[in-house]
Amino acid sequence: MTWTSTQVQLARRPEGVPSDDVWDITSTEVAEPADGEVVVQVRYLSLDPAMRGWLNDVRSYIPPVQIGEVMRAGGTGTVVASAHPDHAVGDVVTGTVGAREYATLPGEELTTLDLDLADEPTWLGALGMPGMTAYFGLTEVGALQDGETVLVSAAAGAVGSVVAQIAKARGCRVIGVAGGPDKVAWLRELGCDEAIDYREGDLTRQVRKAAPDGVDIYFDNVGGPLLDAALANLRRGARVVLCGAISGYNAQSLPDGPKRYMSLLVFRARMEGFVVFDYEDRYPEAIAAIGSMIRDGSLVARETVLDGGVRAFPEALRGLFDGVNTGKLVLAL
Amino acid sequence: MTWTSTQVQLARRPEGVPSDDVWDITSTEVAEPADGEVVVQVRYLSLDPAMRGWLNDVRSYIPPVQIGEVMRAGGTGTVVASAHPDHAVGDVVTGTVGAREYATLPGEELTTLDLDLADEPTWLGALGMPGMTAYFGLTEVGALQDGETVLVSAAAGAVGSVVAQIAKARGCRVIGVAGGPDKVAWLRELGCDEAIDYREGDLTRQVRKAAPDGVDIYFDNVGGPLLDAALANLRRGARVVLCGAISGYNAQSLPDGPKRYMSLLVFRARMEGFVVFDYEDRYPEAIAAIGSMIRDGSLVARETVLDGGVRAFPEALRGLFDGVNTGKLVLAL
Q1: What is the per-residue pLDDT across B166-194, written as a single tens digit (0 to 9) for each?
Q2: Residue A122, min C-alpha distance to chain B (Å)
Q3: Which residue of A lies nearest to B53 if distances are taken between CA atoms?
Q4: Contact criterion met (CB < 8 Å) for A273 and B272
């Protein structure tokens, strides 16, 4: 048996926001899996800010997507054919499936999901890469201590919303930053002590007002002016966790750096980057911790699910940079 | 008895490079010391890049010098009168004496110098604050490991030259950066494996050529384009030690930040600031380590000594930013 799969390939490298003509949408026939392989019918695709970086032809923590390749994307789906002993037809799995309807992958690159714990979209969000990123970024890189003051940007997003809730569960004072009144209202629902709308401007003043004694941890998903505002409002010994810089991902030249970086000296503080893949061996620990919080209700996992199938991928990706999502953004196929 | 002391007071806050009219040079009578105090005839004044920061009316790691105050400065000198049991007339001491000929200070703020180990100017350089800064910045903040690749800027300066030599003694590959052929030649004499003249431009390429596998530690005294060049050439797990940013100290607005700061993410690296005063309890450890290197010849302590007395202080300070010094810059009174 074969399956006809619509797929999204990179046609050319984008400048700025990836327009439709960056992509070729094609169909291909997917054959029965070879030995050790599995064919997955993809049901949900993950949309991640990091995807924008993967489109640039530069040395980074992961090779760029090449012209002509199917776009790299995490996802979940159902096994429709298996030549791997660990996977049976009907199993629901997750992995880097790519932006396509059917994916043939080595069985060992797929993980079977526990749908009793959470639905598929949550396995791409709080229990997926964003959740892992939040957990290890905050606890390992940020060296979170109970009761500290934590500032988190893109706090209504997939990573930020988990950061905020883990910090709250650790007795921290949490200040979330997001764009627009709806997201700010949601941050308060999540338990943030303060919620800042970055669209209201004067970020240095807003952060100072929310954290008059300064912040111990700034978990940065956005870069730009908010990073400078955070640097101006650190406490002694603060940690700035560099997780992302979405405000600059579509810039056509390298955006300005943080002018206030010498605050790191004044406050004896550090700024440190990380890549979640380095913690792969410890994902079970994070899944257990976040899963337990989901079960006891101390963590709300939220996703924004877009419809439209794989052909809607280009538009969905742009939506991420427009902030259409609250929580994790996924595309249903 | 009294002493007539010429002193340099801050008259107004500078914009840019501190011109002569930033200072008032006045004379005052110094009386016999009160109980617990000591009168020191200042012999050498330390000139430090950090002084420029002390002139700005901003919150920092130390209060700014106030208008009308004698300029803060480290120095050495001879006790000419003492009402403190630990200090006798004729002792040679060091402390924050200020830019003046005679200083009255509490005895406990002065340290008696061991002139058998080194001369007074060296006690302001390799055995003074710059040496302490090099030692703790490199070993504690930089977490130096034997055999690593270390890049250091202002490597012909007071701090950088000690950083380079400690790193060499630890079996590191050391790349020093300085301005002009004389300083570069001196860096090679000191044992630097590579010496870069920043005036030759294209710093990213120069650093890449000197450290094709990247650097483990960048000890930053300068900021500016060299910081970006270093960030572009890190190794995984690298540490950027923020010690200073002399390239921007005279700027009239906040200089640009490091555009390449997201390299910290790609390389899982950290950038961390520190203030040497935090290590005050451990100065004896650093003095012992550096003193031992001076004795066995593995560390060359060099100073550039300017003449001209306290009235030459304003010009001497500007000289620091013009790079007139090799090694520590001191002014003889």
Answers
A1: 999 999 999 999 999 999 999 999 999 99
A2: 26
A3: A266
A4: no
